[in-house]
Amino acid sequence: MSKFVHVLPTDDVIPHEGSPDCVCGPYTESIELRGAMSGQGPVAVLYRHYAVIPCRDWEASPEIM
Q1: Exposed/middle/buried for 37, CB within 10 Å: 0-12, 13-18, 19+?
Q2: 65: pLDDT confidence band, cut at 50, 70 and 90?
Q3: Whose CA is closest to 12, among 50, 64, 63?
Q4: Per the structure, how many domains does the chain have?
Q5: How are beta strands 44-48 and 27-31 bridged, if at all?
Q6: What is the average per-residue pLDDT within 20-46?
Q7: Which of 33, 39, 46, 51 could form a disulfide with 55 if both were Cys (CB 3.0 to 4.6 A apart)?
């Protein structure tokens, strides 16, 4: 597994970096396949970042390694 996607608020009062070490302490969720492909472990990790203020604009971006 080598795919990481970050869901970032774009109109927050603080800048968010596309990494697990972001100051907001993002929530981590493993993504697994269902059905015939299940049982192979996670295929990706989703990091959902926390907004300091309610935000309307969000974007999904891959982690830059």
Answers
A1: exposed
A2: low
A3: 50
A4: 1
A5: antiparallel
A6: 83
A7: 51
Look up the domain containing 11 and give its range.
Answer: 1-64
Return the pLDDT at 5.
Answer: 92
Whether pTM > 0.90 for this model: the answer is: no
Q: Within 13 Å of residue 24, how many CA atoms lie on the same side as its CB?
A: 22
Token pair belonging to 45? 């990790």
